[in-house]
Amino acid sequence: MNNPTVLVVEDDSSVRNLIMTTLHAHQYGYLTAENGERAILEVTSRNPDVIMLDLGLPDIDGVEIIKKVRTWSEVPIIVISARGEDSDKITALDAGADDYLTKPFSVDELLARLRVVQRRLARSAAENAPAFANGPLEIDYEAGIVRVAGDEVSLTPGEFKLLCLFAQNVGKVLTHTYITDKIWGNSLETDVATLRVFMASLRRKIETDPAQPKIFQTHIGIGYRMNRL
Ligand code: CA
Question: What's the pLDDT tens digit per position in 58-89?
Fold first, then answer.
């Protein structure tokens, strides 16, 4: 797969230049936009493969841009936000963003986030497959069978549902609200506590070494991600 073209939406020229320099050095194509209006125009006219979106723009709120883009496009969106603004990240993820970077971020973090969405793009062809495989983890959706390193694992229906939700969103950070809403149809505070219990039990069954989880990543105060192994 060719490296994707990244649309960089950021009004701060120093951050924008850092991202552009990094993308250029690593053979990514890139487009830039300094505000939300320009961003929407670039998305519609140039069809980028990935969007990196600063949430604090001078004209349109970043979350509004995500909602707008999501009405017609599933293009991966990585939001860029300031440190400590967890509620902004959560709102952006719930609006359909895939991932986030917190300022100040390193070049390595930036490239790592891009690799995750690239893998997501690469696997989209296999999306409707009856089975799922990720590292040692295998799911046969129709038979309802889960295997880890070839051994069948016994899951409760709730755990199976939760695992399938992550499998359908590999590489994407899922917020507590998103998960509880999909699994239980609502998102009360108590459900977040229940989710924590479910995740702990799922990890014990799925992770080869639950003390050093590789499949599930915890984003404290935000949610969880299933890593692509
Ligand atoms: Ca900004």
Answer: 999 999 999 999 988 889 999 998 877 788 89
Q: How far is the CA of 1 from the centre of ligand 1 (A)?
A: 32
- pTM equals 0.73
188 phi-psi bin (left φ>0, alpha ψ -120 to 50, beta other): beta
Q: How far is the CA of 74 from the centre of ligand 1 (A)?
A: 23
Distance in Å, CA 52 to ligand 1 centroid: 12
| Closest of 64, 67, 63, 100 to residue 83, by C-alpha | 100
Q: For residue 173, report the distance from its CA to the centre of ligand 1, in Å.
A: 22
Interval between CA 215 and ligand 1 midpoint (Å)? 33
Distances from the Cα of 71 to the Cα of 77, 100, 157, angstroms: 13, 20, 32
Q: How far is CA 171 from the centre of its chain?
A: 5
Q: What are the tens digits of pLDDT across the range 23-46?
A: 999 989 999 999 999 999 999 899
Paired residues of 225 in beta bridges: 173, 217
